[in-house]
Each structure stands twice: as structure tokens, then as C-alpha cells.
Design goal:
The complex is a heterodimer of chains A (156) and B (291). Chain A is an all-alpha fold. Chain A has one domain: Cytochrome c-like domain (Cytochrome Bc1 Complex, Chain D, domain 2, Orthogonal Bundle), CATH 1.10.760.10. Helices cover 33% and strands 0% of the residues of chain A. Chain A contains five helices and no strands. Chain A is globular, with a radius of gyration of 17 Å. Chain B is globular. Classes of the chains: A mainly alpha (156), B alpha+beta (291). Chains A and B meet through loops of A and helix 1, strand 7 and helix 11 of B.
């Protein structure tokens, strides 16, 4: 009896945490490409977001964008616009939308979609050059996107 | 929703500011050094008007050489400094060495490499009437090995192949690339063009995204070139070996989290013809030096 209660409680906690996550295919995108609802229900952490933006294995946003506040990250690219005041010019929902799938906002952009798992031509498992086994994971998790959005909102 | 701020148009300024800012850069620099003369005698065309079929997209084509740092550029200006030349010497031995069940060498059929192979690299990939398809230089080399020598095929992206391509390219060095894209080659060329503009991989980028839309921009530490193949095979400082065209295609697709086509596949052979044709007018440079 006791054991059963415990298991039940654990699965409830898991269930509650999970219920807050919006899967990539379930994201509700507005006509202008913005995404109003948080992908996790957990507020983003701007410090984690900064790390994701500047880290090659994570967002690697600096491959294409110069991010002046991350001055100690070497080799920032200039394929996309400088990210210095996007927190002023976009709402949180708009930034979330750009990250989820930039093509919903800028139709022919070269910026990858960070929360999209289908509709690709010959996608591989990471940088292995081999097809994924099972479902393709998004480039960033829902929480990582929330963290990046929180960081971008600080750029004013 | 607001539009993005215009990206800086004065790329050269942005790039040089960037290089100064990051003291230990990869050594890349803006387009700055348009003269390539090898051994003080062979002048290379590293910049030319775009061929007609490209005019809608870009005005001027550039060799990958102009996007490299002064240090890397210098290595290609003298054959004593060009590490690719070691492989040319190796291939010269191979040229004369009999192999396979027929006991023949390349020289037995073709004679002296300098006369037999002059101008060949400049026009490959090329339609082959007997085979009924466009053949890359690598495919032609393997065809000789299998059908005339009774020898094993070489790996399309392997070291033996790269070295032989270097020897053959050298015999056309300085001549303008001039691959045919019409007549029987047209269908293959069209397929290559489609693949060039087709997004691939989870990063969902076409070749054109980097090499047409964004050349002369920095992507992380890399100064993007037009992805021309007039310099192949290229000796890369990064992996200290000669690299083949299709090996490079594989690498770029891997980097966008894609599954590359197989070397020697109809897709990669078509892409090679198409990319070669984007360089019609640039000098054959192989073996070149890149980072």
C-alpha cells in the first residue's frame, strides 16, 4: 500500500512537470510568427541563456550574430544582425517565435529553427552524418529556448 | 512585427574591426589581395565576371584563395612552400607504375603526363559519350583503373585519388575553368543546380545560403568564400592533407547536420559539375592551399 502511494506521487510530480512542456509539434504560432505561450511554464534564466547563445555545442548563435554583451566569446559572426537591442524592439512572444522557427517570421531566412523536428531534407543525428535513430530532437529544448528568450529580453 | 535592422553592408570594415578585436583570429581577412602569381611566373585569374548562367545571382566570381589570410595565401605563391606538391611527386611515381591484371601504368596508355593531361582538369566534369553520362575526373580515373588496368578502384575522396587529381590539375594550372553545361550535360547540370539551392540537414541550409548569399561574411571564425572548386584538390592546414571536392561537399553537409550523398553518387557528381560551372573563368589552381 505504502509503495503504491509513493509510486503514484512520483508519477504525479513527473506528470505535472511534463504537462507544462509544449512539444515542438504542438506549439501555437500566431500569424505574425510569434509564440505567446511559454514552452515550459518555467521562467527563463537569462544567465543560462547567455551561455547557450555563446556556446558552440548549444545555440551557437554567435556563429552568425555578434552579441556585444558577450564580449569575451571569441569569433562572433556577421551573417545575421547584431544582437544588441532586440529586447527593446521585440516582445517576448516575438522573440520566442523567432527562436522556435525563424522562417515563420523571416520567410527565406538562413537562421535555423531551434524548436522544430520535422519537414527537413536528409537530417542527421547531430554532426554524425548519419540519420537519427527514432525521433529527431529539436536543436534546443523548450527550457533552453525560454532561457535564451529571457537573455534576449535583457538586451536593451 | 518589426523587421530586423539592416545587416552591416560595409562588410570589409566589420570584418577587419573584428579581426583586430579578437587578437588570435584564424587569420582570415577581407578580400584584400587580388593578385596571385605562382613562382613569380604563372598569373592566376582569382576574380572574374560571373558566367552568364550566374549573372542573376552574382556579378563577380572569386577563388577561395582571396578569402584566406595573407599567411595562407603566401603558401600557394611558391611551389616550394606549397605542401600539396609533395603529393604531386608521389602521383608522378604512380603515373609510371604498372598495376592490376593488365600490368599497365597510366603512362603506358597516355605517355608523358605534361602533354597528355594538359587542359584536362579545366573541362571536367565532362560528358562521356561511351558511358552515356557526365564523368568527374575521379570517375574517369577509376574507369581507367578498372577497365584498362584491371586494378582496384580508388576511394573517390581518398589520398591516392587526391594525389593523382593534383598531378593532373597541375597540368592545367592557370587555364580558365571551362566546363560545358549544355548539350548532353544539361540534365546533370540542372540536377546539380537544384541540389545547390536545396536546403539540407537540420540546420536547413542550402549551399547558396553560405556561399552565394553570405560569402565575405564571417560564420564564427570562418571567412565564407563562394565555395568554388577551381582550387581542388586543396591542401588544408586544418587536416594536413590533400582534400577532394566531394570530401569537401561531405564536410559542409555534415556541418549543417545533414546526411551527405555518397561520393561518386549521381547527386554528388551532378553537384560537382554545377559548382565547377559557377567557376567558369577562374584559373585552375590545384593543388591549392586553404586553412
Amino acid at each position: 500500500m505504502k509503495l503504491v502511494t509513493l509510486t503514484l506521487a512520483a508519477s504525479l510530480i513527473g506528470g505535472v512537470a511534463f504537462a507544462g512542456v509544449v512539444a515542438p509539434k504542438e506549439v501555437v504560432v500566431a500569424d505574425d510568427g510569434s509564440v505567446a505561450q511559454s514552452l515550459t511554464g518555467v521562467p527563463g534564466n537569462p544567465e543560462n541563456g547567455a551561455a547557450i547563445v555563446g556556446t558552440k555545442k548549444l545555440g551557437n548563435c554567435v556563429a552568425c550574430h555578434e552579441v556585444p554583451v558577450l564580449a569575451d566569446v571569441p569569433f562572433q559572426g556577421n551573417v545575421g544582425p547584431v544582437l544588441d537591442d532586440v529586447g527593446d524592439r521585440y516582445t517576448e512572444a516575438e522573440l520566442r517565435g523567432i527562436l522556435v522557427n525563424a522562417k515563420n517570421v523571416f520567410p527565406d531566412t538562413v537562421m535555423p529553427a531551434f524548436y522544430k523536428v520535422d519537414g527537413y531534407n536528409r537530417p542527421a543525428k547531430g554532426f554524425t552524418a548519419k540519420p537519427p535513430e527514432g525521433e529527431l530532437p529539436p536543436l534546443l529544448s523548450g527550457q533552453q529556448i525560454e532561457d535564451v528568450v529571457a537573455f534576449l529580453m535583457t538586451l536593451k | 512585427m518589426t523587421r530586423p535592422k539592416g545587416r552591416k553592408t560595409l562588410t570589409a570594415i566589420t570584418v577587419s574591426a573584428f579581426v583586430v578585436a579578437s587578437a588570435v583570429s584564424a587569420g582570415d581577412t577581407e578580400i584584400s589581395h587580388p593578385e596571385l602569381v605562382i613562382n613569380d611566373e604563372t598569373k592566376m585569374i582569382v576574380q572574374a565576371p560571373a558566367p552568364d548562367h550566374l549573372k542573376d545571382a552574382i556579378d563577380t566570381i572569386y577563388s577561395g584563395w582571396v578569402f584566406r589570410s595573407k599567411e595562407t595565401q603566401a603558401l600557394q605563391m611558391d611551389d616550394f612552400d606549397n605542401p600539396g606538391m609533395i603529393f604531386v611527386e608521389q602521383a608522378m611515381e604512380t603515373w609510371d607504375t604498372p598495376e592490376g591484371s593488365e600490368g599497365k601504368s597510366c603512362a603506358d596508355c597516355h605517355g608523358d603526363v605534361e602533354t597528355a593531361m594538359k587542359g584536362v582538369r579545366a573541362v571536367y566534369p565532362k560528358w562521356n559519350e561511351t558511358a552515356g553520362k557526365v564523368m568527374t575526373l575521379a570517375a574517369q580515373i577509376n574507369d581507367c583503373r578498372v577497365n584498362r588496368m584491371g586494378a582496384e578502384k580508388w576511394k573517390i575522396t581518398g589520398g591516392d585519388m587526391a594525389a593523382m587529381e593534383a598531378l593532373i590539375s597541375l597540368q592545367s594550372r592557370g587555364m580558365p575553368v571551362n566546363v560545358a553545361i549544355d548539350g548532353p550535360a544539361k540534365e546533370t547540370w540542372e540536377l546539380g543546380k537544384k541540389l545547390y539551392y536545396q536546403r539540407i540537414g537540420q540546420l536547413d541550409l542550402a549551399c547558396a545560403a553560405c556561399h552565394e548569399k553570405n560569402y565575405d561574411h564571417m560564420i564564427r571564425a570562418d571567412h565564407l568564400s563562394q565555395g568554388q572548386i577551381n582550387g581542388f584538390p586543396t591542401y588544408r592546414l586544418k587536416n594536413a592533407k590533400l582534400n577532394t571536392v566531394q570530401g569537401r561537399f561531405k564536410g559542409c553537409i555534415k556541418n549543417v547536420r545533414g546526411v551527405p550523398y555518397k561520393p561518386g553518387s549521381p547527386e554528388f557528381d551532378a553537384l560537382e559539375l554545377y559548382v565547377a560551372s559557377r567557376g567558369n573563368g577562374l584559373s585552375v589552381e590545384g593543388p591549392s592551399v586553404r586553412n
